[in-house]
Amino acid sequence: MNNIQSEVTTKSNLMKVYNKARLARVFDPKRLNRAFGIIQSNSTRLLPDGRLDVNVNDWHMATISGCDCEDHKRGTKYCKHIIAAQLVFKAQRLAVTK
User: Fold this and answer.
1) Nearest alpha carbon to residue 63 among 71, 54, 73, 55
2) 87 contacts 36 by C-beta, under 8 angstroms
3) Is 19 in contact with 59 (CB distance < 8 Å)?
4) Is the overall model pTM greater than 0.70, yes or no?
5) In what order do the strands lie in the sheet with 52-55?
6) Which residue among 28, 48, 76, 92 has the highest number of C-beta atoms inside a 10 angstrom radius?
7) 43: which DSSP letter?
């Protein structure tokens, strides 16, 4: 279990947020699935300043609105790293409101 699942929120909250995003159809389904896979893997770290440190093939820094990956630089509004950061942020908020 990575630090996002153990320190920020539970798998249950992540699954709830993922399912809400899937049903809302806000994000491309393939990117949403990849983002959820990133969170579930041991390749993510939530930093104290709220950024998500993602290691898929190489390290990327993502926030809920920006990322340094090539996909985002080419103009994709929501790359898989940003979606992952948004899912974590929303799951964290869900955990706090309980």
Assistant:
1) 54
2) yes
3) no
4) yes
5) 44-46, 52-55, 59-62
6) 92
7) -
The answer to whether the beta carbons of residues 85 and 52 sit under 8 Å apart is yes
- Tens digit of pLDDT for each residue in 79-96? 888 898 888 888 888 766
Give the integer Cα–Cα distance in Å for 23 and 10. 20
Give CA–CA dist 2/39, Å, rounded: 8
Residue found by looking up tokens 């898989």 in the block: 80
Pairing between strand 59-62 and 44-46?
A: unpaired
CA distance 30 to 66: 19
Is the pLDDT score of 20 beyond 90? yes
